[in-house]
From TrEMBL:
It holds the Pfam family FAD_binding_3. One of its GO terms (biological process) is ubiquinone biosynthetic process. InterPro entries: FAD-bd, RIFMO-like. One of its GO terms (molecular function) is oxidoreductase activity. It comes from the Eukaryota. This is FAD-binding domain-containing protein. It comes from Zizania palustris. GO terms for cellular component: mitochondrion. The lineage of its organism: Eukaryota, Viridiplantae, Streptophyta, Embryophyta, Tracheophyta.
Length: 602
């Protein structure tokens, strides 16, 4: 937890590593319109829309974590989501140390995850192979003894699919009074509707209007086959509605960075036969499969229950998402497995594009709209930074809104959310792109250079796109790719073939030296530092800051505990001397709880 800033009696105070400091307030902006006004008059009949201090758009992990934290802090809120049901597509699955530390504060959520996740020996490795039953080209174990000894953090990383995390979060929210509703369960009338502690599914944020004292939100929903719009007034609108955020679009906030790094098809399927086989023969989290018939990455979300997601690259317009029917996907699965499981059940097929972008700003409309999670940043999945960064965004924002509502801080504290979290997003974007490139070094070493594939695709698009039909372009493209994949045959990739031997030796070197795709980044997950924000950074002279930035840029994977202002408080077990309780707490969580309890009585 970084230092906490607020305003009391015209003074600025902050709590940092258990010590309270005080200095004249000179950096806080003048108090603007109250963000948490009750608007009693507006809510008191006459057809006026109901008012809430906060409306959250998006009922994914980030939006649900936000709603839980805000409610615990005494801030009334509701959640809108355009979907009528929660997705069962697994999506994110790796939870890093810092996020698990935050989950320890959510009524035992971290413990529930640890008890529900697959055994660590089933997911600690990345496996590189010619098929799931063929030759293993190499593997990397991403867990160290210090992870189990909990040296740098009071809790270990976890492998737990996003849809299961959402289920646990919904149970936690039910425990504090939240309920989930569909449009037909609450009717079409908004007058006298109590929205507090409600998750409104099937409600899409379709319009926003800045008022004198908040935001008027239009939420579209389907009422018996007819689209209607429900009006809701709020002090703050928090956009946690994902990579294609409607809130971000309505607020006119642009994304900056790299688009369309790769296009993929995501195939969610079940096969207990395959799960049992891999658990017994070659357990792992990710399987990178390269053979003459197909190339893909298999994410083993749960080997015990046989739940998988297969990621397949594709190249439109020659290859279209519509080409990947259930039958085609089943055929690709068999090619990558090396034998035919009898119980493959394809549940869902989705296209997606990989981007590396950060919103140009996180806050808009006079501090009334705030972006959180994927709405504010879109990363390649390499390293699992997306959901983790989003949850940490939510945590950072929630305690600041708590201080704001309780009159401890002025509205300027909202700007520190952007000044602290946006640099982290830029850094994680760069790191995830580097990690993605490291992942691409493996097929390049085996003779399948992705840059060559992209170049071939571009040439076909630019020179043949307007001359020959798409089907012929597709045949040509796939023919060239098939020739390239021929280099993955057993005839080439073996120790007796000079070319294959050289490539396998290079592959081994990349894996042994840690230059392939990495899973854990403790230096970044725990060692990031807020140089600007809700803290006093005068101890950081310019030379010191520059030295820190240069050291950080070397990408050391080792976490070095730091006592510098703006850093996460290093983990150490503590026990209160005033009680006989032998239970120890970590410094990473207990001090901020003591502060909030004493100052805010929460």
């Amino acid at each position: 937890m970084p230092s906490i800033a607020g305003a009391v009696g015209g003074r600025l105070f902050w709590v940092h590593r258990g010590v309270t400091w005080c200095r004249p307030r000179r950096c806080l902006l003048p108090l603007q319109l109250p963000l948490f006004s009750s608007l009693a008059a507006a809510a008191g009949g006459g057809g006026a829309p109901p008012h809430l201090p906060v409306v959250i758009v998006g009922a994914g992990p980030v939006g649900l974590v936000l709603s839980f934290l805000l409610t615990k802090f005494g801030i009334k809120c509701a959640v809108l989501d355009k979907n009528v049901e929660f997705t069962r597509h697994p999506r994110a699955h790796f939870i890093n140390n810092r996020t698990m530390e935050i989950f320890r504060k959510l009524d035992g959520l971290a413990g529930d995850i640890e008890n529900s996740q697959p055994p660590v020996d089933l997911w600690r490795k990345f496996v590189y192979c010619t098929s799931l039953s063929g030759s293993i080209l190499g593997s990397v174990d991403h867990m160290k003894q210090e992870d189990f000894d909990k040296v740098i953090s009071p809790i270990s990383v976890a492998h737990f699919s996003q849809h299961k995390l959402v289920d646990l979060l919904l149970k936690k929210l039910e425990g504090i009074g939240f309920q989930t509703y569909l449009p037909d369960e609450i009717g079409s009338s908004t007058q006298d509707l109590v929205l507090e502690n409600k998750i409104l599914m099937g409600h899409e944020c379709s319009s926003i209007q800045l008022t004198d004292d908040g935001i008027l939100v239009g939420a579209s929903f389907n009422n018996a086959g007819r689209m209607q719009e429900r009006k809701i007034h709020c002090g703050l609108l928090l956009g946690a509605d994902g990579a294609r955020s409607t809130v971000r679009e309505l607020a006119g906030i642009n994304m900056k960075g790299q688009k369309d790094l790769q296009k993929l098809v995501s195939v969610h399927f079940l096969s207990r036969d395959l799960g049992k086989y891999l658990s017994r023969e070659r357990p792992g989290m990710l399987f990178f499969i390269f053979n003459p018939d197909a190339v893909g990455v298999l994410v083993a979300h749960d080997l015990e229950h046989g739940e998988f997601v297969l990621q397949i690259p594709f190249y439109p317009p020659q290859q279209m998402f519509e080409d990947f029917s259930t039958k085609v996907c089943e055929e690709i699965i068999v090619k990558l497995v090396g034998w035919e499981p009898t119980d493959v059940q394809v549940l869902d097929i989705k296209p997606w594009a990989m981007h590396a972008e950060v919103a140009e700003k996180y806050i808009g409309c006079n501090n009334r709209i705030i972006l959180v999670g994927d709405a504010a940043h879109r990363f390649p999945p390499a390293g699992g930074f997306g959901m983790n960064t989003g949850v940490q965004d939510a945590h950072n924002l929630a305690w600041k809104l708590c201080l704001l509502q309780n009159g401890v801080a002025s509205t300027s504290i909202i700007q520190t959310y952007e000044s602290e979290r946006q640099p982290v997003a830029h850094f994680n974007t760069e790191l995830s792109v580097e990690n993605f490139k490291a992942a691409m070094s493996i097929p390049a070493t085996l003779g399948l250079d992705p840059t060559v594939a992209n170049s071939v695709h571009q040439v076909i698009n630019s020179s043949l796109g307007s001359i020959i039909p798409r089907n012929l372009q597709k045949t040509l493209l796939e023919g060239l790719f098939s020739i390239g994949r021929a280099q993955l045959s057993d005839y080439v990739l073996n120790e007796k073939n000079p070319l294959g031997s050289s490539r396998l030796a290079r592959l081994k070197s990349i894996l042994d030296e840690g230059k392939s795709l990495q899973l854990q980044f403790p230096a970044e997950d725990l060692g990031f530092r807020y140089e600007l924000g809700a803290l006093d950074a005068e101890d950081c002279a310019e030379a010191t800051c520059e030295a820190e930035r240069q050291k950080h840029s070397k990408r050391s994977r080792e976490y070095v505990p730091s006592a510098k202002v703006g850093s996460r408080l290093p983990h150490m077990l503590m026990r209160a001397l005033s009680t006989s309780n032998e239970v120890c707490s970590s410094t990473t969580t207990c001090l901020i709880h003591i502060f909030l309890a004493n100052i805010l009585h929460v």
